[in-house]
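User: Fold this; tokens only.

Assistant: Input:
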Amino acid sequence: MARIVGYIAASLDGFIADDADSLDWLTKRTDFELGEYDYTLFIKRIRTVVMGRATYDWLAREGGWAYDGQRVIVVTSRPLDTPLGPLETRSDVDALVAELRALDDGDVWMLGGGRLQMAFLERGALDEIEIYVTSAILGGGVPLFPPTGCKAMPTLVSARALGGGMARLHYRFD
């Protein structure tokens, strides 16, 4: 059975993008020392990448696509006119959760924003999340976890200070 995981960065005040939908506060920094937690190592263990339409549109707008080695599923009810790469679409989250749970060829990464992660959390379908908290206060933007009324009590697996003012928090949802 596939593990469904999150791997995401957030500002100290809990935002994953600023109010202009930018990640400059994260991507322009060069002082992070992630070591064994670096994205390039993380992505090697991922077989399936799942993202929502907003994340897909952001990638299309920013010109980024680095998932040719993985199965990619975009959760959307609207057609993708010119897909960025090989991908599949789904609109039924419940059916997608069942489909992903049946996989046995590697981990599933919930890429991007908190809305889709919350949809999976609400269904008890997010197994773990790594949150990389940076020493930036954005004052507003896209929240890590949008308010949906969902309540959870994840178990803190580990917390570690990393270089450049970043901390890694690793949680498991039981």
